[in-house]
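User: Can you write out an input/output pair for a complex, sequences first and structure second?

Assistant: Here is one pair. Inputs:
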Amino acid sequence: MSTVSAGFSVSLDGFVADEKDDISALYGWMVGAVQQDTELDDMEYTDQGKDANEARSAAFGAIVSGRRTFDLAKGWGGQHPLGVPVVILTHEVPTEWANDGKPFTFVTGGVAEAVAKAKEIAGDDTVAVCGPDVMRQCLEEGLLDEIGVDLVPTLLGKGVPFFAGEGPVQLEKVSADDADGVTHLRYRVVR
Amino acid sequence: MSTVSAGFSVSLDGFVADEKDDISALYGWMVGAVQQDTELDDMEYTDQGKDANEARSAAFGAIVSGRRTFDLAKGWGGQHPLGVPVVILTHEVPTEWANDGKPFTFVTGGVAEAVAKAKEIAGDDTVAVCGPDVMRQCLEEGLLDEIGVDLVPTLLGKGVPFFAGEGPVQLEKVSADDADGVTHLRYRVVR
């Protein structure tokens, strides 16, 4: 049975991006000194980021992403960097992506349908939920099994919040790894 | 030179109390199943809480507290549970406490004066900042050296926030301890 898991780099004050949607202050541990407009091809994983990503993506069978993340990433150039099929939750299927053989599935029926589709693709592997909006929808609909947090030692002050009023939700800590700079935390959602 | 340190039990979504000022969901790891109106004498430290508290309070030379915390705790019955002198930041000195030999000092000149007074009392020991409002004032005025977070595996959804827009502030992780349930995190404020 597939596990539905969401993971983010989060500032100590609970933001997943700054107010300009820039994530460079939060993902430096993973991909070095990226800027918001850094092209995918120019990104270079740090050793720490490479190890973390390889360990995680090995478990991923499919990704559920919001349309906004898909658009911001410009469709990851046709292939998600983790090499995993992506189910994209959208209001409208983009005609330029739908039928060109890329590993993307567009779902318009809501988050439960997107997760069901991703589980079908993933088989026994993990479904990774990408984007805080989709994560929160999954949490509210009882679809989320795990939350991963890479806790970054910074206070952004303002930005895009990780959580926005979901709860009360009981969690159970699965692991906490004291890495260089960041702390890798994993929680199981108790239902 | 005294270090000024703030420490709180915080939910994964960044609250230090629920919307009714109840902290029982966050301090269970430390003092068991307390309710909001549990009397101090009825509180019993868990083994984990006892160890954490003893290690911390041994380093404390003085505590800076907001008046609200002082009032909510009913003056801790005349003696802070950590057995440390308390400097209370207030607008008005309560006459019933000012001159009765209790280890409390009331300061009306603002947070910088309260911290200076606490440092004077603490000598080389740590000044502990108590209450999120006072912590945030210290952070904004550049008075805070360390932030301690006991990260509790729960989402409260709403409540009293730990941070409220302070930043950007760069932190440096001092330690992350994977304890039973909670994760004990310590950060140095980079100035």
